[in-house]
């Protein structure tokens, strides 16, 4: 009887773990198929982008790859992806942005990708030029988990599960012209920064929040 009770308890425990895992996965949507640019739109320079081993590879003159697979804008969400940089490479992940034909995106915020790029002190997990990180939380030549959580007027940036940066918009800040950054809504974009930079982005998924 004791043995049966123990076995029953083990099955119940495993079932609870499975239910919890399923609940955690609930609501996540993959934004890539690992083999094409379906759902994404490139601006300026098509040659800056390729798909390799399931990843978007950014290498070339300035260009941005915008997610256009869902017309409903993203406001509150958790975005998760894996990123890898080569030595002396720069890239970025934008949120609350909008497609534009050329130039650095004027809308939204850039979450910096830079582990060893010499010409810019702003490192990975910086909310670019808004709240910067000056010491890289990841290294080159291996994938790291990049998680961006946005809720109302606050963004939290996690690297490999560790909270590295958090920014809350000051009260009373309003959208201005040019590069003024404010929380709003929009889509996501990935950055190809320059011909000398190589950055890989893969396993991109998002969960909308209330």
Automatic annotation (TrEMBL):
Domain 3-keto-alpha-glucoside-1,2-lyase/3-keto-2-hydroxy-glucal hydratase: 27-207
Pfam families assigned to the protein according to its UniProt record, in alphabetical order: 3keto-disac_hyd
Keyword terms, alphabetized: Signal
InterPro entries the UniProt entry points to: AL/BT2_dom (IPR010496)
UniProt keyword tRNA processing present: no
Keyword ATP-binding: no
Sequence intervals crossing the membrane: none
Superkingdom of the organism of origin: Bacteria
Molecular-function GO terms, alphabetical: hydrolase activity
Signal peptide range: 1-21
Protein name (database record): DUF1080 domain-containing protein
Lineage of producing organism: Bacteria, Pseudomonadati, Planctomycetota, Planctomycetia, Pirellulales
């Amino acid at each position: 009887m004791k043995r049966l009770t123990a076995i029953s308890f083990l099955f119940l425990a495993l079932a609870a773990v499975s239910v919890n895992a399923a609940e955690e996965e609930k609501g996540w949507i993959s934004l890539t198929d690992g083999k094409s640019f379906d759902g994404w739109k490139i601006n300026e320079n098509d040659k800056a982008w390729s798909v390799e081993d399931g990843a978007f590879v950014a290498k070339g003159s300035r260009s941005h790859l915008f997610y256009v697979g869902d017309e409903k804008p993203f406001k509150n969400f958790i975005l998760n992806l894996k990123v890898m940089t080569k030595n002396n490479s720069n890239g970025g992940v934008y949120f609350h942005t909008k497609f534009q034909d050329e130039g650095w995106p004027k809308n939204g915020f850039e979450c910096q990708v830079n582990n060893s790029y010499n010409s810019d002190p702003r490192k990975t997990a910086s909310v670019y030029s808004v709240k910067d990180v000056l010491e890289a939380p990841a290294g080159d030549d291996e994938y790291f988990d990049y998680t961006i959580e946005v809720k109302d007027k606050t963004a939290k940036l996690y690297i490999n599960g560790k909270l590295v940066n958090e920014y809350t918009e000051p009260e009373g800040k309003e959208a201005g012209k040019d590069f003024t950054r404010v929380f709003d809504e929009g889509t996501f974009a990935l950055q190809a920064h320059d011909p000398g930079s190589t950055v890989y982005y893969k396993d991109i998924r998002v969960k909308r929040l209330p």
